[in-house]
Specification:
The protein is mainly beta. It has a four-stranded antiparallel sheet with strand order 1-6-5-4, with no helix packed on it. The chain has a four-stranded antiparallel sheet with strand order 2-3-8-7, with no helix packed on it. The protein starts with a strand and ends in a 24-residue tail after the last strand. This is HSP20 family protein. It comes from Actinokineospora terrae.
């Protein structure tokens, strides 16, 4: 159902791990991990967005390209607070998925619960499997060779 993904994303992930290992630091996980699967007559895509306010998430679909944009804002800190560790990334993150023509992008639903954004995209009627009836000629329509 996905047409393709970003071919350079995996390369970037590997490069980050190699560079982080060379510097002796731990690599951060992807900022917006995604799972995508088909469940019956719908395609389900989930994004991990912990700590993101639902109002800070934008979804757009244009020409079968789904774009998810989210902003994780820094926490308000009291005066005199000094962080000892700050590993949770903040800022704007985005991810694009190229959807196939077999999906009905006019009927996408989105829900956000416990830091997980779940999109449900129905499979288009024209792409669903269907039975084709086979007809046989009636007895009176048989052709007789003389």
């Amino acid at each position: 159902m996905l047409m393709r993904t970003d071919p350079f994303r995996e390369f970037d992930r590997i490069a980050q791990q190699v560079l982080a290992g060379a510097q002796g630091t731990w690599s951060r996980p992807a900022s917006m991990p995604v799972d995508a699967y088909r469940a019956g007559d719908e395609f389900v895509v989930t994004f991990d967005l912990p700590g993101v306010d639902p109002d800070a998430i934008d979804l757009d679909i244009e020409r079968n390209v789904l774009t998810v944009r989210a902003e994780r804002r820094p926490h308000e800190t009291a005066e005199g607070v000094e962080y000892q560790i700050s590993e949770r990334p903040t800022g704007v993150f985005s991810r694009q998925l190229f959807l196939g023509d077999a999906l009905d992008t006019d009927r996408v639903s989105a829900a956000y619960e416990h830091g997980v954004l779940t999109l449900r995209i129905p499979v288009a009627e024209r792409a669903k499997p269907r039975k084709i009836a086979i007809t046989a000629p009636a007895d009176d329509q048989k052709v007789i060779n003389a």
